[in-house]
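Help!! Second protein's tokens look totally different from the first
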Amino acid sequence: MEKNCRNWTLVLVLCGLLPLATQAGRQMPKLSDKKLCADSECSHPILIARALQDYYPQDCRFIHIQQGQSVYVYAMLKDRGNLFWAGSVQGSYYGEQEARLGFFPSSVVEETHALMPAEVEVKTDKWDFYCY
């Protein structure tokens, strides 16, 4: 019975009938084994980018980005052609959207300000891809 419930939950999420929030609190598949950062904790932003288009997340590991928003990039995933970066966005000055870290395709942004070089290679762990 429990296995059938999990299968139905997956079907409902994939069909968009069950919110992605139901994925919160669990480990998600790793997108990469390594990332490039400015420091060993990936706590300093590498660059600031501007969103070229809207991006709607695939699951809870990713963040929603609206065209024109500034994105602070903290890490660039390796091993898969730098397809995904990790960063945060904030709403407008009086906006309701709070800052949140997550992944997004590097192709939906363009670099506007380089801040620090991404020269430190860091291994990813399960917490990099954990859904909260």
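Here's the second one for comparison:
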Amino acid sequence: MGFKQVAIEDVIPLRHVVLRPGKGIEACYFEGDEASTTRHFAWVVEGHVQSVATVMTSSRQIDGESVPLQLRGMATDPCLAGQGIGSRFLHALHEELDDSWWCNAREVAVRFYERNGLVRIGEAFDIPGIGTHYVMVYKKTAGSG
């Protein structure tokens, strides 16, 4: 029960419902999903996948520092919204990762990420067919995690 590493097949259903509604299932597979360094994670309770995310090696320069990991495809079951599952999942992810990471956060998720230790970097940008996003970063520091 709780946080665990899973297979790509375990993250696709929530990606489809939350991140790519109305699109074909093929839109739920991201470049890099099958890379040997990519890891998929889920928050699972009694066999039910409640929240998912993928972590890929994709370095980005932020404030003069190389941030090596990218979080992609984070989604939580909409039926469970407001119960703190996404925050518990993200906290477990912070503890699992050995480094800082960044993500492209949907505009509607920025406050959630800020409450969970991420900082917004730069201006908004549009991902065609998906919507407005911001780059956000979680910087692991001594004593965090």
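Reply: Different proteins will give different token patterns, so don't panic. The chain has one domain: 2-138.
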